[in-house]
Structure formats: C-alpha cells, structure tokens
Amino acid sequence: xxxxxxxxxxxxxxxxxxxxxxxxxxxxxxxxxxxxxxxxxxxxxxxxxxxxxxxxxxxxxxxxxxxxxxxxxxxxxxxxxxxxxxxxxxxxxxxxxxxxxxxxxxxxxxxxxxxxxxxxxxxxxxxxxxxxxxxxxxxxxxxxxxxxxxxxxxxxxxxxxxxxxxxxxxxxxxxxxxxxxxxxxxxxxxxxxxxxxxxxxxxxxxxxxxxxxxxxxxxxxxxxxxxxxxxxxxxxxxxxxxxxxxxxxxxxxxxxxxxxxxxxxxxxxxxxxxxxxxxxxxxxxxxxxxxxxxx
Length: 295
Hints:
Layout: H1 3-10, H2 14-22, E1 29-31, E2 34-36, H3 39-48, H4 57-62, E3 69-72, H5 76-85, E4 90-93, H6 96-104, E5 110-113, E6 116-117, E7 122-123, H7 125-131, E8 137-151, H8 162-167, E9 171-173, H9 180-191, E10 200-201, H10 209-217, E11 223-227, H11 228-233, E12 237-251, H12 252-255, H13 258-266, H14 270-278, E13 290-293
C-alpha cells in the first residue's frame, strides 16, 4: 500500500503515517524513494497491538504466527540484503534493545543487535540471555564492523579522539538510548574519563546509522559515532575506534521459516560476498556461525 492507502486503511492522516515511519514504529520499505507498506505486515502490526484481558494475552500470542519483521539495530548490509533477497522480511530498526524486546514479545521474527558487554569484552550473549530468558533463541553472527567517529569532510576541527570532542567543543550527534552504538559510545566516553554531560550533544538523537551520517554531512553536527561504511557513503572523514560484532537473534521455531531461510541463503551467495567485500569496515567471513544457543 502507498502512504495514502495505508492512511485510509488505518483511518489516520498521512502526516501521522510519516511520523510513524520516522519513529520506526510501522512496517515499511522504501522503493525508488517512495514508502510502501506491505498489507499483510500492517495487519500483523495492528494485531500485535491488541490489548487482552489479564491471563488471555499470552495464550493468544502463542497461537499467532510471528510477524515477518526484522527489528533491532540498523545495519546497511542487512538492509540491502533484505531488499535484494526478496525474503519478505520488513525492516523495523529502532535500536538493539528495542528490537530484542520486540522479538521477546513475539513482535519480530529476527532481531539485529550489537551490544558491547564490557565485563567480558564481548558482544550480545549476556544481553540476549537476560532479555530472552526461557525462550528458544539462537544467536548467529552476521558480520564484524568498524565503529568510529564520522567527521565533517576535511575534519576542520582536527578531531582524532573522544577527548577532542570536549576539548574542541564539537557538536556531537548521538543515537537513541536503546541503540547499540549509543551503548558503545557511552562506554568509550567513560573509558576516556569524560562525562556525557560535558559533551555538546545534539538535542534530538539520530534514529539510524544513516541519519547520523547525514547530520554530520549537512553540518548539523561536527562528529558522531557510526560505522565506517556509512562515513564512506557520505564521504566523511573517519577515525576508527572500535571493532564490533553484529549478530542476528532468531527463535528456533522461526529459524526454518521461509523468510529467514531465504535471507540466510542469500547471505551465502556470490553477490552477497561481493557486496560485503565492497563495504568498508565489514568482515562477513564467519556469517552464520552460532554464537549462542539457548538451552
């Protein structure tokens, strides 16, 4: 459905539809610059918001098929793969922890996440084990990525480290609190001996990697933490700071569903390997490796 059609279908104004898209709260996909809304996913999205009397919701949810939605952290390679594979998974990025909550509640079939766990200096496993306790989830490696500071072309402020953000009074774009990039950024700021309150953080967080890159490109910010491929896409300067692992969380009951299998099959194709190799900072050589399998 088009924006107008989905507005009529939901009996809301078109402006409200655009607000929902901007907030990553409605299943949508962009084709040749226009937003489209798969009707079956809109129906599932509406059904997923149904309120039940106490004691009924769990039973009702158990009998419902999981919506074909990939929630969680925004990843450009994953977004491209969902589109090119024809797997029928709609991307609903809202941050790693937001997506994990959606998967745990049965509102998403796949969740992408990259949550740094400083106690073990690793990624995602403890976070998934806690958020999905009692669920039949499996954690699969997607790719390693290079995180760092995206800077205005030419790096006019001469920024080369986290401490420079404070010393040079940079305007800093950040992500929403539940985003893996923001969790990592807070950790890097703490390791640098700084406080977030000491930085010139913009009032409104960027809701995706590309939104943050655009904020720097358009001069709304001097710097922000994002992955190398986004900085390259917008021809921004880039200071690498951290290598991270991006994983996919899937319930075992959904692993063999056609949308998931179509995505994973595409990720083993030559065209995918070629694309991943062209994206700066990516290493997808161990894609599909099982990192955690809940007992």
